[in-house]
Amino acid sequence: MRHSLLHKYYSVVASVFFLIPMNASCADGPWQIGARLHYGFLWPHRPSSWILVQGHSIATEVYAERQLLGDRAWHHHYRGPSCGVGFMYAGMADPDRIGTVVRLLPYLHLPLVKGERGSFGMQLGWGIGYVAKPFERRINSKQIAIGSAVNTAIQIMAQYRLQLGRMMLNTGLGIDHWSNGSVALPNLGLNLLSASVGMGYSLGEPKPYVHVPDTTQLERPRRTYSVVGAFAMSETGRPESGQYSVYSVIGQVQWRLTKKSAVSGGVDLFNKGALGTLYPELKEEGRLAYTQAGIHGGYALLFGRGELQLQMGYYMYTPKPEAEKFFHRLGCRYNVGKHLVTHVGLKSHYAVADHWEFGLGYRW
Fold first, then answer.
1. What single string gives the DSSP state of each residue in 170-188?
2. Disulfide-capable partner of 66 in 26, 112, 288, 317 (CB 3.0 to 4.6 Å)?
3. Closest by alpha carbon to 121, among 86, 171, 165?
4. What DSSP string describes 11-73?
5. What's the distance, CA 285 to chain centroid?
6. Residue 12 contacts by C-beta under 8 Å, 6 or more apart in sequence?
7. Is 5 left (phi over 0), alpha (psi -120 to 50) or beta?
């Protein structure tokens, strides 16, 4: 119960952070409601996950969205993106071990190529998910993918859209991911890879986006520095081994490339209490022995004061040489005022979550 409540809190916080860049700034576009049908399969990203692949999966999704028509500068940078919320109900073709899964997430659709009627773009979402049958040692021990009912849900989808009056047809190829951020083991995660077709209907007359080229120069400064301290709880080693605190310090320099993108590099310090369950001999040396140090590089999409980060790092020091060498981070940041920065991140080792990061920092 404590695992579910804790991760429900983490997932809600992450969803709110993803909503911040939208900031209810789509006041000019009419709402569109629609539905999508997904057909795909559970992607076994680790060999041990094959036991859960029993066949193809069918999912249904309903959504509501509206277009951002340009009252913020970043709306023009992305040529009239859309913001919305989608609810998915899916069967994973393994009713005994997984059962049904659902997710509710806010999303942004970012057009990459846009014509008079058709457009192609990426849809990015981050919200909360539910798995009907998570791992339970006594009754569901073969569910080796996820150990909690309440989870984070992440969506990445390439999508083509065709506008026909008030009706919009869409088709896409995407991946939906359920993970608890290693709050409770196991946590390999569930990955639904699917193709989709859908149709939406606008409740008002659609307002065409008119792109006005932005000829202004990049805002100064193009290079910024930041230091962030973060905290979370995680479980590592074996299921039901207990939760331990994780502390992170992230130092970073970021270079703005364009009005909607930036690259970054930095250093990381992690102190993860759960390492003591993996290496009991470290307990004799004290908490400082659980420290790891690394470097990272990354790319960010910019949305005004908000940004979405994707990073890859390398451990320069870890207390045990057989530990993972590379780590990854998916995160959101929001700049408050001139210097304060808020941070939510999900650190992972390839496709397996390691721990959350919830933090505050200073930028200059």
1. EEEEEEEEEE-TTSSS-B-
2. 26
3. 171
4. HHHHHHHHHTTTTT---SSPPEEEEEEEEEEE---SGGGGGG--SEEEEEEEEEEEE--SSSH
5. 35
6. 128
7. alpha
CA 21 to CA 83: how far, in whole Å?
10
In DSSP terms, 151 is beta-bridged to 129
Burial environment of residue 251 by CB neighbours within 10 A (0 to 12, 13 to 18, 19 or more): middle
What residue type is 267 in one-letter code? V
CA–CA separation, 12 and 18 (whole Å): 10
Residue 121 sits at φ, ψ, to 5 deg, of -160, -175
| Terminal Cα distance for the chain, rounded | 41
The encoded tokens of residue 236 equal 């590592």
Is 305 exposed, middle or buried, given 0-12, 13-18 or 19+ CB atoms closer than 10 A? Answer: middle
- Shortest CA distance to 108 belongs to which of 210, 39, 20, 214? 20
* pTM attached to this predicted model: 0.84
Q: Which residues contact 197 (CB under 8 A, 6 or more apart)?
A: 36, 37, 169, 170, 171
CA dihedral 214, 220, 221, 222 (to 10 degrees): 30
Grouping H, G, I as helix, E, B as strand and the rest as coil, residue 247 is strand
pLDDT at 2: 47
CA 37 to chain CA centroid, nearest Å: 22
pLDDT tens column, 81-139: 999 999 999 988 776 777 889 999 999 999 999 888 899 999 999 999 999 888 777 87
DSSP 143: -
pLDDT the model gives residue 8: 53
Which whole-number Å values give the CA distances from 173 to 103, 137, 157, 313, 332, in the listed order? Answer: 17, 35, 6, 28, 24
Tokens representing residue 192 in the block: 């639904």
User: What are the CA-CA distances from residue 258 to residues 68, 253, 261, 263, 302 (Å)?
Assistant: 20, 16, 5, 10, 9
* Predicted confidence (pLDDT) at residue 327 exceeds the cutoff of 70: yes
Distance from C-alpha of 306 to C-alpha of 112, rounded to nearest angstrom = 19
* Of 55, 150, 153, 41, the residue nearest 96 (C-alpha): 55
